[in-house]
Amino acid sequence: MDIRLPEVTLQQLLLRLAATLLTLAVSGFVTTWAVRRAGDPGPAHDGRLTLSPFAHLDLAAGLAGLFFRVTWLRPLEADPRMFRSPVRGTATVVALSTLSLVVLALAALFGRTMVVQALGARAALTPVQVLTATYEVAIGTALINLLPLPPLLGGLWWGAIGAEAGRLAARQSVRVIGTCVVAALLLTGLAEQLLALVRRSLMQLAGF
Fold first, then answer.
1. Is the dihedral of CA 95, 169, 85, 50 positive or negative?
2. 142, 160, 149: which is closest to 89 by C-alpha?
3. What letter does residue 206 receive in the DSSP assignment?
4. Cβ neighbours of residue 97 closer than 8 Å, sequence gap 6 or more
5. Contacts by residues 35-38 (CB-CB < 8 Å, ≥ 24 positions apart)
6. Cα→Cα distances 48→34, 73, 144, 160, 169, Å
7. pTM here?
8. Which run of H or E residues covers position 185?
9. Residues 6 or more apart from 143 whose CB is under 8 A from it?
């Protein structure tokens, strides 16, 4: 299977940049809040309880957002062993983060119609394009982060399994390997096939 970057225009890059930053802002804030509620205040004390996307931005994840319409948070230094219940707490964090992205995606999808009605078709062109890109990035991010791979959010499951697994997942070398696996899924097009199917299916279910 060919490995190559998809061809994108400058306009697409700018739209996806805006969508990626918005996705990181929402996902980062909600995830940090959920981690604190689960019992680990560390990420909140590290300045991650903010809507600033730059506090959550990771270079590789930012590039993935521009070229593949998926992104992920700069790894949270969260320790599921500090959760009141490691397994239930991890499940809650992952679920709330995923739900926040689905809500963002649906809000962007339905927001397109409202923007057109408010501004008119011509004036609403750019805002609609930003909202469409936000829908695509948010859904892609919600799905990719379910994978139990550091540095993705699903990597928190390692810490919920046990202390040794958690320490292993926190190692920079393991996070690099996880990033390479995600990159391979994106570059080979394997992830895009599933993501495209989900994006189209959700749009159809929403009546678009």
1. negative
2. 160
3. T
4. 27, 30, 31, 34, 145, 153
5. 35/76, 35/78, 35/93, 37/92, 38/80, 38/83, 38/84, 38/89, 38/90, 38/92, 38/93
6. 12, 10, 21, 21, 20
7. 0.93
8. helix 172-187
9. 70, 194, 195, 198
Nearest CA-CA partner of 134 in 198, 60, 199, 193: 199
- 66 with 16: CB under 8 angstroms? yes
Under a CB-based contact definition with an 8 Å cutoff, are residues 195 and 70 in contact? yes
- 150-177 in b/e form (b: 16+ CB < 10 A) is bbbbbbbbbbbbeeeebeebbeeebbee
Token look-up 């599921």 returns 80
Cα 57 to Cα 156: distance, rounded to the nearest angstrom: 18
Q: Are 24 and 71 in contact (CB under 8 A)?
A: yes
Q: In this structure, what token pair is assigned to residue 154? A: 């699903």
Name the more confident of 190 and 21.
21
Tokens of 104: 């963002």
> 151: which DSSP letter?
T
pLDDT in tens, 54-101: 999 999 999 999 999 999 999 988 889 899 999 999 999 999 999 999
Longest Cα–Cα distance in the chain? 57
Q: What is the mean pLDDT of the chain?
A: 92
